Amino acid sequence: MKGIRVHQTGDSSVLRQETDLAIPAIGDRDVLVKVEYAGVNFIDIYQRAGVYPMPLPFTAGREGSGTVVGVGPHVRPTTDFNIGDRVAVFTQGTMAEYVSAEASGVAKLPPSVSTQSGAAITLQGLTAWTMVRDAHRVEAGQIILVQAAAGGTGGLLVQMCKHLGATVIGTVSTQQKAQVARKHGCDHVILYKDVNVEREVDHLTDGEGCHAVLSGVGAATFEADLACTRRKGTLVSYGNSSGVVSSFGILALSKRNVKLVRPTLANYITEREEFEERWQELSGLVSSGAVKIELGGMYTLDTLGRAQDDLASQLTTGKLLVKID
């Protein structure tokens, strides 16, 4: 089969398309999926660059969607996957024609959710939903700051926060992205290159700050994220797109009794019951139209390097996908 392998860490040039890979074996509790779409995410870049160390070599990709073509002997009695089911997959190795995943990381797609949308929401969608349900429980009347509000995860966060009744302030870099953020539902949009974010948030919140700041940017905005969080508020730092946050003085949190959370999706959905609960909620939001998927670009396996570079450039909006032919 075809797939993208990483044999050494580095920039996007280390991504290698191989055509003679073996189709993965099916474990007792595994589901074998013929992949149709795979999502492009910052975690792929972190793994490739060595920020998140991985055993070498490895197959790229952390989310995808496709059709079940094989099931392990202990799968059907508990999860009821069958040959031909359309599914979303949350596992390593989705940038390939086939992937074998533990059934605990596989979910059926309802008829109203396309295979393309399934790939777009598996990792990013579950990440966003657990940020507003588990990392900080967003409630009606709260004011939430979403950094990078026009991006793939940011756009989902905005829609989810609005669905839950919050007022949303979003940051973006350009007027074009500001239009995207407003389309997602942002009540206020800040162009961070033109104005001081802390000052604008202070003005918009009458000096109180935000109940929660949801930021996947990392180092570049961390101090501002902290400053924009109100007394007894929560700073959710869920990513490192600008670099990893270095050590900081923990006493800075005591100025306003701020709670700092650095979560990962995997720790919120470790158990099958956790995964299934959040997946059912998320797929319901997509099915009802409460959350809409914006496609930012479609790539192929041999252009995955460009896709990752486009994502890292922060010039894209919406979700980037790879179509597996």
UniProtKB/TrEMBL annotation:
Q: Please name the Pfam families in this protein's record.
A: ADH_N, ADH_zinc_N
The record, for SMART domains, names: PKS_ER
Example GO molecular function: mRNA 3'-UTR AU-rich region binding
User: How is this protein annotated for GO cellular component?
Assistant: cytosol
InterPro entries, per the entry: ADH-like_C (IPR013149), ADH-like_N (IPR013154), ER (IPR020843), GroES-like_sf (IPR011032), NAD(P)-bd_dom_sf (IPR036291), QOR-like (IPR047618), Quin_OxRdtase/zeta-crystal_CS (IPR002364)
Sequence ranges assigned to domain Enoyl reductase (ER) in this UniProt record? 10-322
Task: Tell me the keywords, alphabetical order.
Answer: NADP, Oxidoreductase
Which PROSITE patterns does UniProt cross-reference here? QOR_ZETA_CRYSTAL (PS01162)
- Name of the protein: Probable quinone oxidoreductase
Q: Which organism is it from?
A: Metarhizium anisopliae (strain ARSEF 549)
What is the phylogenetic placement of the source species in the record?
Eukaryota, Fungi, Dikarya, Ascomycota, Pezizomycotina
